[in-house]
Amino acid sequence: MTDIEICHSMRHAVVYRPPPSEGVPVQHRPLGTTGPRVSALGLGCMGMSALYGEADRAESLATVHAALDAGITLLDTGDFYGMGHNELLIGEALRTAPAAARERALTSVKFGALRGPDGAWFGYDGRPAAVKNFAAYSLQRLGVDHIDVYRIARVDPDVPIEETVGAIAELVQAGYVRHIGLSEAGAETIRRAASAAPITDLQIEYSLLSRGIERQILPTCRELGIGITAYGVLSRGLIGGHMNRDTKFAANDFRQRGPRFQGENLQRNLDLADALRKVAEERGASVAQTAIAWVLSRGEDIVPLVGARSRGRLAEALGALEITLSPADVAAIEEAVPAGAAAGERYPAAQMVHLDSER
């Protein structure tokens, strides 16, 4: 797809410069005080396998390759995304990528979710033996000899976090894992985990519509030198600029059950996206670029994960790296989308109970 075709395929798109075919991206950020330096944007790969309806396999592989070519180094996945499908997809993308890009790539893997053949969710398993079992399968599916950042997807309430983190620390000592991460953990759990082993980063939802981490979680991470990999930076498309009130979701798209996508909640949230659009257009950027740039502006210790499933959406996201927001820009954005303005919880009630970060 050419740059012109990309632009014409996107409503409200801006003109994008092609990403470099070789070389390392200009912008890097440290992943906490104990982790590696990574590209300022990471690629979240979940939607290439699960939860957002059907995905185009060829386009997914091309998108991973385009991300690596552009200098994105952090690829985020979970062993339960499509029951291993996503890890196999990333493994294939890495095998078929140029050697230089493959060597720069870093894998971030979540584990622990228990699922049935019908897609049902049964909770999370953070027992030490389970941690090592999950890791063995992930290494095989990814086709790598180590995982760069390994984390349980949700804190297992039946297993002390110290035991789960301790098992990952043993994998680090054995060379199978490089760094330990957390996901959707609350401040107290973060402190306990950090007392057991060095924690590189916390993966958690953070966007203009989801700013809860600013109260306790983000200050705790900064105190302890723990980085943030922020997912949901476009709030599952709500503030991506490509959704409207007539958007239809596939039967296997989990947003059908999302509280923020229901009835009056959807109307309210899309009104916020429209307000953000006005700010974005005044600055010659797309809505998505503005939302991503806002997350980037929150601190050098925050790395947004963009869930692009196509080269076009990836190109748009990369454009956010060229945006520098002034204090006046940030104020205008936050006036358009004030903290706490989102209508509806970020997950259905059955999933909210698994979020240690919300306790």
UniProtKB/TrEMBL annotation:
Record flagged with keyword Oxidoreductase: yes
Keyword Chloroplast: no
Keywords: Oxidoreductase
CC terms in the record's Gene Ontology section: cytoplasm
Superkingdom of source: Bacteria
GO molecular function: oxidoreductase activity
SUPFAM superfamilies: NAD(P)-linked oxidoreductase
All residue ranges annotated as the NADP-dependent oxidoreductase domain in the record: 41-336
The protein's name: Aldo/keto reductase
Organism (species): Streptomyces morookaense
